[in-house]
């Protein structure tokens, strides 16, 4: 089960010292958007993911792929390839981590933060840091699967 909140971030509001946090380079494409079936490369790890419908709460299943399988499936994606740097920022005084996604490629300039929770109650009670912008948790427009289908 994935329970997450998602926020837009203004570049001028980013926290200082981002280079001091660990990060992952992510590339992902969609084989289907209904249901959501995604392939992802995160650094040197490869996955096939299924996500059920939903916005803040939905089922998510990750299956490992080989590098060869990933690149074979990459040729079959439908729409835009999503590329981003995901910076992991621990949220002080909690066990939560901010996943700060700085997009490149087709979505250059877009910055979003995601926070995953153990329960819906935690997600609903969450007070975001001051530097977070608009809460887009319930906007399908900011699902990566929807973004993959945008025309430019």
Task: Reconstruct the topology from this structure.
Elements lengths: L1 E7 L14 E11 L2 E7 L2 E7 L5 E2 L1 E5 L2 H8 L7 E9 L6 E8 L6 E6 L3 H6 L18 H4 L5
Please provide a brief summary of the model.
With 152 residues, the protein is mainly beta. The protein has helices at residues 67-74, 120-125, 144-147; strands spanning 2-8, 23-33, 36-42, 45-51, 57-58, 60-64, 82-90, 97-104, 111-116. It has a nine-stranded antiparallel β-sheet with strand order 5-1-9-8-7-2-3-4-6.
Structure class:
mainly beta
Count of individual helical segments:
3
Whole-number tally of structural domains = 1
Assigned CATH class: Mainly Beta
Strand arrangement, major sheet: 5-1-9-8-7-2-3-4-6
Mean pLDDT: 95
CATH H-tier superfamily: Hypothetical Protein Pfu-838710-001
What is the succession of H and E elements? EEEEEEHEEEHH
Report the CATH architecture.
Beta Barrel
Largest sheet: 9 strands, antiparallel
Low-confidence stretches: none
Distance between the termini: 33 Å
Proportion of residues in β-strands: 35-45%
Q: What best-fitting shape do the alpha-carbon axes yield?
A: globular
CATH topology (fold) name:
Hypothetical Protein Pfu-838710-001
Find the count of extended strands (DSSP E, 2+ residues): 9
Helix content bin: 10-25%
How would you characterize the overall build of this protein?
The structure is a single chain. With 152 residues, the chain is mainly β. It has a single domain (2-147), classed as Hypothetical Protein Pfu-838710-001. 12% of the residues lie in helices and 41% in strands. The protein contains 3 helices and 9 strands. It has helices at 67-74, 120-125, 144-147; strands at residues 2-8, 23-33, 36-42, 45-51, 57-58, 60-64, 82-90, 97-104, 111-116. It has a 9-stranded antiparallel β-sheet with strand order 5-1-9-8-7-2-3-4-6. A hairpin with a 6-residue loop joins β8 (97-104) and β9. The chain is globular. The mean pLDDT is 95.
């Amino acid at each position: 089960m994935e329970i997450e909140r998602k926020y837009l971030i203004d570049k001028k509001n980013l926290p200082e010292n981002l280079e001091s946090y660990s990060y992952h380079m992510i590339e992902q494409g969609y084989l289907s958007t209904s249901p959501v079936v995604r392939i992802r490369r995160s650094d040197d790890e490869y996955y096939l993911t299924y996500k059920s419908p939903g916005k803040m709460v939905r089922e998510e299943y990750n299956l490992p792929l080989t590098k060869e399988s990933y690149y074979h499936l990459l040729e079959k994606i439908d729409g835009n390839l999503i590329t981003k740097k995901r910076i992991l920022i621990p949220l002080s005084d909690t066990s939560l981590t901010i996943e700060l996604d700085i997009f490149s490629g087709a979505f250059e300039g877009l910055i979003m933060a995601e926070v995953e929770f153990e329960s819906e109650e935690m997600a609903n009670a969450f007070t975001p840091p001051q530097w977070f912008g608009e809460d887009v948790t319930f906007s399908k427009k900011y699902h990566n699967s929807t973004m993959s289908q945008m025309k430019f």
